[in-house]
């Protein structure tokens, strides 16, 4: 267990959680990103946002984010500054095999120890290449050389190992900048190790996931509930395309008490806006819908035009989706709608491809062709081209079909092609959820 | 014109651009973001990426990005640190009308001058509210009170004015954190004002996009070329799933000279690894492939199994893709491969769904069914389920078919479902590029 007294901590806690926290000392972290590509604006740093959330989940407070370039002096200065401010310094980037990657030599210099081939790391990187049928190059072999004073952190998704340093009660962790490598390392190793090393308060999070209602409408509907939240419970709105997540964060001394209290608050919320709530925690809408289909033992087929494959991608991004998803047709061209799916030429000519009549046929036809319980369909003007005065960019028809009913919805979305594709796909998933026979959550 | 001698500047230039730069002084900028919401990970900071690109376009080098919370001490410390390092400090956030917005009082304190109602700013904020049919509240009226020592920067898109400070040859600019307000202010006022105030060098960037080769293999193949780069030209590797981008950044006095020199370096690179280069600049692989299909007037159909819609999504994410993409079948279930696509039961029984024989049939069949020039197909074990000892997770077959040839590839990818889906989709796009008749880029 490390000491971690930071006078700054008390003051900041007071700002955030009120007087309740004067008695506790918060563990402080600084996130340090290394790489010219971020300073030049060639990529957006999404890592540090993800890390902030993860750290907050275990009660560690991020007090600063810093980005410096691939320059030794800048990196060393940033190390020294961060060490003064924070208990934990989490470093990403600059671990690649090429000569512009300076994080490792800088760490060796900062902690005053030499690089040495780490036998276990070498074995791991060798295995990594072998499993992909590729030969280990000398450049990659050198990635297994680590500063002698660090603890190696296994990289299950790539070739650059992470590194863990301890010095004067402070912890430095270096991780790759590749998001999926960093995330796996954080989740499986760093987060558990940090909770063991530091004394953190009990923080309990619960995420409540809604679809089919916008942020401001939701806020209006739950205004009274929100105002009645006790001071040690914080509410955050996390909107994304077609969804709003609500995150309750409570802080205290007993996990059991916090869980009980959050449960009661959630029950009350379900009484107010239960229709919009599709699940809790990490599982996105496509997982919730998949679980409903599995429970009810129903199969699904998709005919998607304007969403161009994205709806099927969401559905099949879920492991095990082959249990309920049989397949799709993407009838992108007009003639494919007729020839491959069987939409009647009269319907297309009279009402157009983007119409209630066409979307109904599409959902019914794909269900019949694939012999599934449920068929869904999309057809619309994703943009930027293809609009008419009656059907502007963002006009999308969606449909759900089972043996009892065919349900259609007209959406008026945005001017942006990708946003339209994603919002329409989410809307179909939500339509499935709400239209399934005897839906327990509705 | 301000003086802008920063001893650090020379040193940093030397590290980055070599001796060539001892004679020039680069103008250095630091980006400072203020706001708890970024430290907590509630929003991703996309402002600083956009600003980096804009500054780089006028030859100003961003040397650091810093984010601090809504805490007076933290903000004042960050001001002082940034002033030491940079010639220009661009601040976003913390200008809202509520009590947790501290940027303005902190700037007044830092530059040691009082807040005073700015008549022109008051007129602008009054106009802003009037044009939206809303009444000016006292809280919003206070947004027009500015430090006496600053120059007001008009906010054409919102209520909080920007502020421009000069002190000891350094410039501080404070802008709102709302992206569209900040962008309008930067483009119309700050960027022109900075080019007038500072003597900036010319910086030229070129991005070269490759697919089908990993970072370390590419680095080995171009090692000699990289070593021979002149000192004022820098190379960066920017890898993502299935792709590696190379970025050349050169710095000098004449844009024309830099462009010519970069052209020659690029030609030389094409001579070494032209096979892997699919394009330049911003356009991703799906755009490059789309352009090739348009040029050659060819049409495309897709039969994708393990990629589950993601390949079609990449293709249709490109505006105008309906010109060459006719549609897809996603035969996710075994029986759909037979019934909807027409794969022979004997092939599936004898070789399995993940086999060269099946993938060949799939690509040929979808081309025939959709009557297109080209058909492509994917079938594999995306994971985590479905593996056998002979076909572990990550085994993927892909195929390309036109009237002259059918080309197949076996990929051995990762253990991660989403990575496999994305890498396989990229591999198919690259296979199309390389297999098209009389490919000019090959």
Give structural notes.
Two copies of one chain form a homodimer. Chain A has helices at residues 7-17, 36-39, 47-57, 72-85, 103-110, 119-131, 138-141, 179-197, 215-221, 223-227, 255-273, 285-296, 310-316, 334-341, 345-351, 356-370, 417-435; strands at 27-34, 60-68, 88-92, 115-117, 145-147, 151-153, 162-167, 170-175, 202-211, 233-240, 243-252, 277-280, 300-304, 325-330, 374-380, 395-401, 406-412. With 442 residues, chain A is an alpha/beta fold. Chain A folds into three domains: 7-197, MoaB/Mog-like domain (Molybdenum Cofactor Biosythetic Enzyme, Chain A); 204-280, Alpha-Beta Plaits (2-Layer Sandwich), CATH 3.30.70; 285-435, CinA-like (Maf protein), CATH 3.90.950.20. In chain A, a hairpin with a 4-residue loop joins strand 16 (395-401) and strand 17. In chain A, helix 3 (47-57) runs parallel beside helix 8, helix 4 (72-85) packs across helix 5 and helix 12 runs parallel beside helix 17. Chain A is globular. The two termini of chain A are 48 Å apart. Residues 1-23 of chain A have low confidence and may be disordered. At the A-B interface, helix 1, helix 2, helix 3, strand 2 and helix 4 of A face helix 1, helix 2, helix 3, strand 2 and helix 4 of B. Strand 14 of chain A pairs antiparallel with strand 14 (325-330) of chain B, so a sheet runs across the interface.
């Amino acid at each position: 267990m490390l000491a971690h007294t930071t006078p700054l901590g008390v003051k900041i806690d007071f700002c955030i959680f009120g007087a309740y926290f004067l008695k506790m000392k918060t563990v402080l972290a600084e996130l340090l990103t290394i790489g010219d590509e971020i300073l030049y604006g060639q990529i957006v740093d999404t890592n540090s946002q993800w890390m902030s959330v993860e750290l907050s989940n275990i009660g560690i407070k991020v007090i600063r984010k810093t980005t410096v370039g691939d320059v030794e002096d800048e990196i060393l200065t940033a190390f020294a500054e961060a060490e003064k401010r924070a208990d934990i310094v989490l470093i990403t980037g600059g671990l690649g095999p090429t000569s512009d990657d300076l994080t490792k030599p800088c760490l060796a210099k900062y902690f005053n120890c030499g690089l040495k081939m780490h036998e276990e790391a070498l074995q791991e990187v060798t295995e990594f290449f072998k499993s992909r049928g590729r030969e280990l190059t000398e450049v990659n072999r050198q990635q297994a050389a680590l500063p002698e004073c660090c603890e190696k952190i296994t990289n299950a998704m790539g070739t650059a190992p992470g590194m863990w340093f301890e010095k004067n009660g402070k912890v430095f962790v270096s991780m790759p900048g590749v998001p999926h490598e960093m995330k796996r390392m954080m989740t499986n190793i760093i987060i558990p190790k940090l909770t063991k090393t530091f004394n953190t308060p009990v923080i309990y999070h619960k995420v409540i996931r809604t679809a089919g209602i916008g942020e401001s409408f939701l806020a209006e509907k739950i205004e009274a509930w929100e105002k009645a939240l006790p001071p040690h419970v914080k509410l955050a709105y996390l909107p994304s395309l077609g969804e709003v997540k609500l995150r309750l964060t409570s802080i205290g001394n007993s996990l059991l008490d916090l869980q009980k209290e959050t449960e009661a608050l959630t029950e009350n919320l379900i009484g107010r806006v239960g229709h919009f709530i599709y699940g809790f925690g990490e599982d996105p809408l496509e997982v919730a819908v998949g679980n409903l289909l599995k429970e009810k033992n129903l199969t699904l087929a998709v005919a998607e035009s304007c969403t161009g494959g994205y709806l099927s991608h969401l559905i099949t991004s879920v492991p095990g989706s082959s249990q309920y998803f049989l397949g799709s047709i993407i009838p992108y061209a007009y003639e494919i709608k007729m020839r491959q799916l069987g939409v009647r030429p009269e319907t297309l000519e009279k009402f157009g491809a983007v119409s209630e009549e066409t979307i109904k046929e599409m959902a019914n036809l794909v269900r019949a062709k694939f012999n599934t319980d449920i068929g869904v369909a999309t057809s619309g003007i994703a943009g930027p081209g293809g609009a008419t005065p009656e059907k502007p960019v963002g006009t999308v028809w969606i449909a759900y079909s089972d043996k009892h009913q065919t349900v259609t919805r007209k959406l008026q979305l945005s001017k942006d092609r990708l946003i339209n594709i994603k919002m329409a796909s989410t809307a179909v998933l939500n339509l499935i959820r709400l239209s399934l026979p005897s839906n327990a959550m509705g």
